[in-house]
User: Fold these one by one.
Assistant:
Number 1:
Amino acid sequence: DAGVTQSPTHLIKTRGQQVTLRCSPKSGHDTVSWYQQALGQGPQFIFQYYEEEERQRGNFPDRFSGHQFPNYSSELNVNALLLGDSALYLCASSLAAGLAGIDEQYFGPGTRLTVT
Amino acid sequence: GQQLNQSPQSMFIQEGEDVSMNCTSSSIFNTWLWYKQEPGEGPVLLIALYKAGELTSNGRLTAQFGITRKDSFLNISASIPSDVGIYFCAGAYNFNKFYFGSGTKLNVKP
């Protein structure tokens, strides 16, 4: 049973550039959430995709955008990178549990983004 | 956003000792999850709690969903060196939008 996979593992970008990170959910899951984890902190919710639409969003600027594909995989795009965007970006997948339901989330290994 | 206070921030214990950590929220949650994260890896789900008052075990780990729905506790019994890592609590009210604590770093001395 394939778990959550993310690519690339590491990435180095320059300020002002744009980056795309990718995530494949755990087999059988249809919901993907993205988190940013700064060094020494807990993960912070960026947004969540379900049925190819953004369903929930955290307190992140519009420079952060995403997409979900028909096979449930997802991309996170960050434009106009800032030094402060350096972090571990985590993807978590889950099974939608109804209108207000909640289900377990499983994380991938993350993508370490360094902005110089 | 929601504030989750997780304590203690770090712990240094001897192998074989029991460990307790907790998480409190300013708002109520419908779900609490506990994760463990090791360096360079994503968080690994340990225990999920869905009902106030619920007590759930996973091997040497036991977690409880507080009656007020604003807190949760994790206990590890008879700690071993491989328990070393950072433990995170996460709470959600709906739609799998989880808020995370800042973590408890556990160090176990053999």
Note: The longest strand of chain A covers residues 87-94.
Number 2:
Amino acid sequence: DGGITQSPKYLFRKEGQNVTLSCEQNLNHDAMYWYRQDPGQGLRLIYYSQIVNDFQKGDIAEGYSVSREKKESFPLTVTSAQKNPTAFYLCASNGLAGGQDTQYFGPGTRLTVL
Amino acid sequence: KQEVTQIPAALSVPEGENLVLNCSFTDSAIYNLQWFRQDPGKGLTSLLLIQSSQREQTSGRLNASLDKSSGRSTLYIAASQPGDSATYLCATSGTYKYIFGTGTRLKVLA
């Protein structure tokens, strides 16, 4: 089955550590996205990539970094510079469904800072 | 800058009731508007997508409408069921970017 996988489902980070969240898709989509979701708030865009080896900052990119070396993979690193990283992180990709451009989401990773 | 608002933030209804969820946006220059469902601790599932040239889309008990001129979209759920309990988010799409509302948390009481 085609889809988006994210790992791990739960991640705990100590102060000062960098952690990397995995996102893999087998939908053959060019565009991929990372969002952050906090309680009571909508999704906020961290980074997005329209094509391999290219990515752009979203609205809240500070303290995060990404890479896009393969079409299937778009990992997100939460660095120690991100002061409030505890949140739910969602990866998405864009593709056609019934001729319409649609966003598909992974199951999410919940990051908690200890 | 596009802003997307969803009111109410939470809604409880008895089973069987028809209901309407609202979504408003400030910039009418959108490619499409999409409605999603999110269960607790899960990712988002696409429900309906309305292209900017369309007025509405239907899927089963769901009907979504779009009025670009007034910056509004509604999601109509007919004959609600306890299984419909979830958070519903709308999102507008522009050039390569989606802007999400904060969602309406729906609880359907058996």
Note: The two ends of chain B are 41 Å apart (CA to CA).
